[in-house]
Specification:
This protein has seven helices and eight strands. It is of the alpha+beta class. The protein has a five-stranded antiparallel β-sheet. A three-stranded antiparallel β-sheet has the order 4-5-6, covered by helices on one side. Strand 2 (148-151) and strand 3 (155-157) form a beta hairpin. The protein is globular, with a radius of gyration of 27 Å.
Length: 249
């Protein structure tokens, strides 16, 4: 039986009895529940200010993205089964490598692309459209599944693209962007247009009276992105030796 006058020392804390362990577990569970409740409330509050139509559009975009990912997963599973079967595995592997190279070339901007998508035309009579607005629009397109983006038929937008200035000084990757600004985007036309029209998105920003611009969106089954980028060689990154070497100098 423990001494009631005994004062817990370091050894007692390092070797807790059963009651102390139970109390610690209860406190951990309560703390986790409180944190989870706070995070959930914050997420609910962030969506509570949205209109019903905005929530429906968001849900629709998420469903389309889920279907797209499920389709890609199905294709990958089929490819894996074909490779495992051993039937023409070498030819199939070569075909898959070529297709993957084409996809990477489109994403990197080193190959032209065509397909369904939208063309966004931005009018800026007051010269108040900023690089931040244009960058936000590009990010919205990427979030909606854009696979290729081109501005004014001359600038291919890729992961390393940068935006600067506003109005007459607006530029992308150091190239001046004149008005009206045209943005060709390849991807699901419905998802892309909804991303541009989402409250707080491109249309809302440009149509604001303080900007005084206009946005026209046209869907098409044959959007063409022809401007190309030259991929620079990496300055620091080097391929990993997978030949069984020990690495190092």
């Amino acid at each position: 039986m423990p001494d009631p006058k005994h004062t817990p020392g370091l050894r007692d804390w390092l070797r807790p009895d059963r009651s102390q362990v139970v109390v610690a577990v209860v406190l951990a569970v309560v703390s986790f529940a409180v944190v989870t409740q706070i995070r959930t409330r914050e997420e609910v509050d962030s969506y509570s200010s949205l209109r019903q139509s905005d929530l429906v559009e968001m849900l629709d975009s998420l469903n389309q993205e889920s279907q797209r990912l499920e389709g890609e997963l199905g294709d990958l599973e089929m490819t894996r089964q074909q490779l495992r079967s051993g039937q023409d595995s070498e030819a199939l592997a070569r075909q898959q490598a070529e297709e993957r190279l084409t996809v990477l070339g489109i994403l990197a901007g080193t190959q032209p692309a065509h397909g369904p998508g939208i063309t966004i035309t931005i009018g800026d009579p007051a010269g108040k459209v900023t690089s931040v607005m244009l960058l936000d629009a590009v990010e919205e397109m990427r979030d909606a599944g854009a696979e290729a983006i081109e501005i004014n038929d001359s600038v291919r937008v890729v992961g390393s693209s940068w935006f600067a200035g506003s109005g007459a000084a607006l530029s992308v990757d150091g190239k001046r962007v004149s008005t009206p600004i045209t943005v060709d985007v390849i991807g699901d036309p419905h998802a892309l247009e909804e991303a541009a029209r989402f409250r707080g998105g491109l249309v809302s920003q440009v149509d604001d009276p303080r900007i005084g611009g206009t946005v026209d969106i046209t869907r098409s089954d044959a959007v063409r992105v022809t401007s190309l980028r030259t991929a620079p060689p990496p300055a620091y990154a080097k391929p990993v030796d997978t030949g069984g070497g020990t690495g190092g100098d």
